[in-house]
Structures are given as C-alpha cells and as structure tokens.
Amino acid sequence: MPGIVVEGYSGLVIRKMIKLRAAIFASVILVGTQLGMEASKAIPASDAAPHTQLSPTVILGFAGVLQPDCVRQVEAGEYRCAKRWVEVTHLLKSLVYQDVESQLIPPLQHQLAIADQSWQHFQTQHCQQLTQRLRNTPDFPIATSVCLARLNNDRILELHRGGEVITLQSRNPRFESLLDRLKLRNSSVQRHWEQYQTQYCQIEKALFSLNTLRLAQCHQRLREARIRQLEELLKAPARGLALSSGSVLPGIPELKCVDKTQLGLNRCAVYWSKTTQLLQSSIYGDWAKRLSKQYQPTFTIAQKHWQDYREAHCIELVEPFKESSMAPMLYHRCLARLNNDRIADLKGIAVYDPEDDQQRTPVTSFQYTTQPLWERYQTEYCKFESQFFGSQGRSKQCPNRLNLGRLRHIKAMMNTR
User: Which InterPro entries match (predicted)?
Assistant: First the structure.
C-alpha cells in the first residue's frame, strides 16, 4: 500500500538524517573552533605552553554579500529589500567576527571588542551623514540601509585581513583633502573611525609581531577603505547611491573564498547556507504576513513540504561522502542552492540554465526517496499560486518553473557521484 511505502522510506530517511547530521555537526564544530589553527594556538595563553609564538592564520578573503536583485527594483518592496541586505550582511559579519574572535587569546579578544564598538559608532554616524546628503534624491528612502550593508561588507573584508598594500605612505593627500572638503577632520564620526583604526591595527601588530611593516600596512589598508567611503559621501548628492543595474540572480551568489583548505571551504559553505536561509526566511515571512487567512494554510503546508524535501535531498546528496571531511561543504552548499531556488519560487522567477532540457529527467534509484517529497511541495505550492494569482500567467507557469529547479537539483546530485 502507498501509505506503508511512504512510512518505510520516511523512517529510512530520518535514520540517515540523524547519522549524517551527527557527522556534519562534528565537522562544523571543527570549522567553528579550529579555523586552521593548531590546538595549542587556539587556547588561552595561561593554558598554552610557555613562550608559544602565536602564528597568524590564513582565513577567508571575500568582500561580503553582493547587492540583492531586489534593491534595484524602484517600485514595490525596494525599502524592504534594502533592509534584507543589511540583515544578511550583518549576519555574515557576525559569523566572521565570532570565528576571528575564537582564534584570539583573551587580551586580544577584549581589544577586538573595543575596536568593534568604535567601528559600530563610526558606521552609525557615517550612514547618518550619507543619508542626510541624499535627503532630496530618489535614493533617500533606502540610503541608510544600503550604506549599512556596504559598510558591513567593508568590515567583513577587514576582519579577513584582506587587501594588498602596494606602497606605504605616512600621509595621503587625497585623504586629507576629502576630510577638509567634507569638514570632517575634527568630527565625531572621524574620531570614532580613528579609534577603530588604532585599536584594530594593534591586534594585527600583536598577531604579526615578526612583520615590522604589518602595522603600517593595516593603517593604510583601512585608510584606503575610508577614502572610498569619503568619496561616496562627497559624490552622493550628484550621483545617488550608484546601485548596480545589471542582471542579478535571486538569492545570494556563492561566496568567493580564498582559503582553499577543506576547513576554509567548509566554513565558507556554512556562511553561504546561513545567509541564504536568513534571506529566504525573510521573504517567506513577508509573504505570510500579507496573506489573508484564506491562503495561509496552503502556503504554510507548501513551505513545510519544501523544508522536508530540502533536508532529504541534501542528506541524500551527501550520503556517499558522509565520512569525508568535505561532507559539511557539500551539505551546506546544497542547502544554500536550494534556499536560493526557493527564493526564486517565491518571486515567481524561473532561473534557466542553457543546458536544461525541457523534458523531464528520469528519476534514478538514488533520487527515489526524495521525489515524493518534491512532488508534494510542487503540488501544494502551485495550488497556492493558482488560488492567489488565479488564471494569471505566473500560476500557469508554476509546474514547469518548479520542474526546472528540480532538474538542476538532480543534475547537481549526479555531478557529485
């Protein structure tokens, strides 16, 4: 009987989930604690061997989360989309901060906290200034959110100790000129930034004590970022926020990581998974709030079916590699891609791959367990779209649009085998 078959495969999937979750959780603990360091270098100084030299760790180097596609939609939902950009960049910045903090001995953790407090004061005041300069422009409603998101991205890059310094200068004429033109030389916002620069670069000096140029390099790297911020502030009244107008796919693109060790790739995948989950939950939450009681039950059931499918699909994709160190990377990349596809579904967007065939791909044996979950999601979500949008083109296209997503998922699974 169908009910017996479903119960049997569900039990099998649940047992697999429990085992694989345990393996992934153990690996993610390594991601969050080791961060490529030897154990003796990750513990407080009082517990480490005497005279142990704290060696710098090579960590990620990407510039945060790109501007979401919805920010460039001037009409419906632009303000909320900009707020989502802040939320996602703030989450990523917090995750990176926690990972960096976990590498430091207690005195440097305290120094990092002081530097971060100065940076937060600077971020708030800088974005207030930028918003004021855009008061009479079309970008004014989203100015604060866009500014906060961009500065979050700058902070992410700084926490990664990224960027290359070509020349060292004790003074930069452009920097001095911008401060004078904007009348910021003795301002509160500039003082907060200078405090942040001083405090944060002292951490780098301690970590890279054998590199006599490191302190100067840190000061210059942060000053280069500040120059970009000042130039944006100066040009804001004339050019606005200069938002990107190119084609941007729904969701969050895969983060570009320079740490190619397996720990680094695992950590980067976790970041991507968590940020896409936050964005997907935010968009889903907005939908749920504006729906009348008539549509909420179908919408909620469809989301539950999608969550079941996502978990089962990613567990099944990782199953052959569950004992491997790459299991967390594969699992979280899978979650992130399916989160992005769910965002596309919620927006009614079909993300086409030129290699996709319009024909249904046969379901092979290793896809058998997740296919019923997928079909339940597709049925329930397209039922919701039919109820909500009526006979509009979006609801008619729903089955084929979702089929394209499933096709990509199957191809991704086959490519990992």
Answer: LprI-like_N
